[in-house]
């Protein structure tokens, strides 16, 4: 993390951490508290190793870590937030269309596995087919690889579509409160703000998925390619999340911290289960998808 980014993080945390309010005769400065926490989060070494490195007691290192983590959690709504105004959602839509050619897209949705220590209750529910324990993370990201929304904690056995259907994201999309009111007429069809996802999800008026592979040619194949290009933004984001800033991802993306590919993919994402078979979709969703097919084909 560059020095400028670290200083900015300290400034953001300052209102939530007051090193002067302590029983210690010589309180640990804010910058040192943040450094202790960042080092622990990045390395996951034992507290006594962190304490020796920074010249403080083990119990002090532990207390500092949890204090700063609590402060970091209070910044969630500052760095993980959905677009709440029309200009904000328009900026994301424009970013996706410039990068991928897919119109009216304001987010890419997918799920991935996050390794955990075996839980005490129902551990077998969390033991995945790759031989380790994990929970599912559902992430919605924008064109800059930042999370707009997430849902985490489901056992690995839960299908991506089920996790989505149980999430507050799904409920807010259904009642029209997740994105601000905005639409665009494409090929004579009123297109709302859209999210792109893979074939594991159901096709709805807000969720666009690809046509089944091997059965499409021409304009529909072009649509699939454009959607795939848009959807890969979330896969890239998961790669960065696992390879580097697992707990400070959005903050570091916004600060343009350089990401280096890990030497080996120790957190390879297992499959979440078989994809759902296509079922007849609602006619409004079909009309939206066909309008997008025609638009993408025309603008190739």
TrEMBL record:
InterPro entries reported in the protein's UniProt record: HARBI1-like, HARBI1_dom
Main location: nucleus
Cofactor section: a divalent metal cation
GO molecular function, one term: nuclease activity
Keyword Nuclease: yes
Keywords tagged on the record: Hydrolase, Metal-binding, Nuclease, Nucleus
Cellular localization per UniProt: Nucleus
Family named by the database record: Belongs to the HARBI1 family.
Pfam family, one: DDE_Tnp_4
Protein source organism: Cyprinus carpio
Gene Ontology CC entries for this record: nucleus
Residue ranges annotated for the DDE Tnp4 domain, each copy included: 109-251
Protein name per its UniProtKB record: Protein ANTAGONIST OF LIKE HETEROCHROMATIN PROTEIN 1-like
């Amino acid at each position: 993390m560059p020095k400028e980014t670290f200083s900015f993080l300290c400034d953001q945390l300052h209102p939530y951490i007051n090193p002067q309010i302590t029983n210690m005769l010589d309180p640990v400065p804010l910058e040192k508290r943040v450094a202790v926490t960042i080092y622990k989060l990045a390395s996951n070494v034992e507290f006594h190793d962190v304490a020796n490195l920074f010249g403080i007691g083990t119990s002090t290192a532990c207390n500092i870590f949890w204090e700063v983590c609590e402060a970091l959690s209070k910044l969630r709504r500052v760095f993980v937030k959905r677009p709440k105004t029309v200009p904000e959602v328009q900026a994301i839509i424009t970013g996706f269309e410039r990068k991928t050619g897919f119109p009216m897209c304001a987010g890419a949705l997918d799920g991935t596995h996050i390794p955990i220590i075996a839980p005490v209750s129902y551990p077998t529910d969390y033991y995945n087919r790759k031989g380790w324990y994990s929970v599912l993370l559902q992430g919605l990201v924008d064109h800059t690889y930042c999370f707009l929304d997430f849902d985490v904690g489901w056992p690995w056995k839960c299908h991506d579509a089920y996790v989505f259907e149980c999430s507050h994201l799904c409920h807010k999309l259904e009642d029209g409160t997740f994105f601000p009111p905005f639409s665009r007429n494409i090929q004579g069809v009123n297109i709302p703000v859209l999210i792109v996802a893979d074939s594991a999800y159901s096709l709805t008026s807000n969720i666009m998925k690809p046509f089944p592979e091997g059965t499409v040619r021409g304009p529909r194949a072009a649509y699939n390619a454009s959607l795939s290009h848009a959807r890969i933004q979330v896969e890239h984001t998961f790669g960065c999340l696992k390879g580097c800033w697992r707990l400070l991802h959005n903050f570091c993306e916004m600060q343009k911290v350089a990401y280096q590919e890990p030497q080996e993919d120790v957190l390879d994402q297992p499959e979440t289960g078989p994809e759902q078979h296509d079922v007849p979709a609602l006619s409004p969703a079909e009309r939206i998808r066909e309008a997008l097919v025609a638009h993408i084909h025309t603008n190739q």
